[in-house]
Amino acid sequence: MMSLRLTRGILKNNAIRSYSRAPCEIIEILESGFETLSQSKSKSLLKKHLTREILDKIKTKVTPSYCSTLLDCIQSGLCNHDSGVGIYAPDPEAYSTFSELFDPIIEDYHKGFKKADKHPATCFGYGSDFPNLDPEERFIVSTRVRCGRSLKDFPFNPCLTKKDYRHLECMITKVLKTLCNDHAGKYLPLSCMEPEQQQKLIDEHLLFKEGDRFLQDANASRFWPTGRGIFINKNRTFLVWVNEEDHIRVISMEKGGDLGRVYERMIIGVESLAHSLKFSHDKRLGYLTFCPSNLGTTIRASVHIKLPNLGADRAKLEELANKYNLQVRGTAGEHSEAKGGVYDISNKRRLGLTEYQVVLEMHKGISALIDAECQAGSQK
Ligand code: ADP
Ligand code: IOM
User: Fold this and answer.
1) Are 322 and 111 in contact (CB under 8 A)?
2) Cα 291 to middle of ligand 2, angstroms
3) What is the atom index within ligand 1 of the atom nearest the CA of 330?
4) Which amino acids bring their CB within 6 angstroms of ligand 1?
5) Which of 49, 79, 85, 351 to mutate to test the pocket of ligand 2 (most atoms within 8 A of CB)?
C-alpha cells in the first residue's frame, strides 16, 4: 500500500490533471489514498462519506465535457487529512457525475440539504434589515460579507488553461472598470505586485494568501500568478478577488459591526457585475462554486470578534457557535489560529436558504454569542 507521503509525492511531482494518467494509475492512486485516509484520524467530510461502496461505484467515471476524474475531485483531501471538506468540483458537471459522493457531503455541510431539495431563488433582502451588531464597539473589530461567482461556460480552476485565466481576468476587469461611486476602484494584478505590497494586503486581511496547500493540491493554483489579482475601491471597503478559489469573490468589509451597511455594499457590487457577466447557476444547487461548502448563496458573513470569556474555552465556544449554525475560524481565515483573542465567526451553511435567511442566521447567532459573552462576564 502506498503511504500518504508517497501518494502526495506522486500527486505533487506531477502537477497535471489526472486525465493524462492511465486509468489504471488513477485507480491505483485512489485505492491507496482511500486506504490511508480510512486509517487516518481525519475529521474531513471526505473521510466520513467516501465508503468502499461509493468508491467502487464512481472511481472509473469521468465528466462528459472535461474528462475530470474522481482523483481530480478528491486529491486535495487525500493529501491533506486536516481538510474540513476535502473535495472540490473541477468542473460544474462533477456535481452530477460524482453525485454519489458530493450529495451526502453537501447534505452534511449545509445541515440537511437533501438530494431532492432545491435551492430557493435569490432574495437578498436589504442591508437595513440588519441592525448594527455592536453599536458600542465593545466586541466586534470588523465585519465582512463575501460571495463567490463562477462565469458561465468556464470550468473551475483545475481545468482552466493559461489562456482561460487571462481571458477570465480580461472579461472581469473590463466590467470592474465600469463600477461607480463607492464601488469605483482599481485592479492590481498579482503578477505586477511587489512582494512587500502583497504581504501588506494579506496582513490587512484584504488579499488572499499565497501558496494555500489545500488549493495547490486540488490543482487550483496552476499558472500562478497568471490571471490572479485584486480590485480595491478608494475606501478599501469593497474588493473583488479574481481567479483565486473561484473566478470571482465579491467582498465588502469595514471596521465595526455595521452588518447592514457592509451587506448592502456587497449586494450593490455583485448586482452591478451581474448586469454584464453571466454566472454559472444550477436549478438545484444555486450558484456553482469550486468547493461544495460555498454552493447556493455562496455567502460567508463574518465578524472578527473578541470574546474573552467564551474564548477561554475554545471547545465550548465551538459548541455554542455550532448551536447557531456558526463556524469559528482563526484570525487569518480558514485553517489559521486565533491571534490576540480575535476569532473569525461566520454563518456555516450557504445552500438551501435565501441570501436574506443566511445573513439573518449569522446576525441572530452573533447577537446570541455577544449576549452569552456578557452573561459569562457578569458571572465572574
Ligand atoms: P473566505 O473563504 O471568506 O475568503 P478566508 O477564511 O480565506 O475566507 O479569509 C480570507 C481573509 O478574510 C482572511 O485574511 C481573513 O482574516 C479575512 N476576514 C474574514 N472575515 C473577516 C472580518 N470579519 N474582518 C476582517 N477580515 C476578515
Ligand atoms: N473552501 C475550502 N477552502 N475549504 C472548505 C477547504 C477544506 O478545508 O476542505
Assistant:
1) no
2) 7
3) 16
4) 142-144, 146, 205, 253, 300, 302-304, 329, 331-334, 344
5) 85
Can you give the residue ranges of every domain in the chain? 4-109
The length of the chain in residues reads 380
Query: Which residue's entry shows cell 442591508?
Result: 127
CA angle 40/42/48 to nearest 5° reads 100
CA angle, 328 then 369 then 144, to 5°: 55
DSSP string, 44-71: -HHHHH--HHHHHHHTT-B-TTT--BHH
Q: Report pLDDT digits (tens) over 56-101.
A: 999 999 999 999 999 999 999 999 999 999 999 999 999 999 999 9
Check: pTM over 0.90? Answer yes or no. yes
CA of 85, closest atom in ligand 2? 9
> Which three cell numbers mark 232?
480595491
Q: pLDDT digits over 287-319, tens only? A: 999 999 999 999 999 999 999 999 999 999 999
Q: Counting ligands in written order, which one lies closest to the CA of residue 245?
A: 2
Question: Distance between CA 184 and CA 265 in Å, rounded?
Answer: 12
Domain 4-109 has CATH 1.10.135.10: yes
Closest to 373 in 3D by CA, of 144, 136, 204, 129:
136
Q: Counting beta carbons within 10 angstroms of the beta carbon of residue 317, is it exposed (0 to 12), middle (13 to 18) or buried (19 or more)?
A: buried
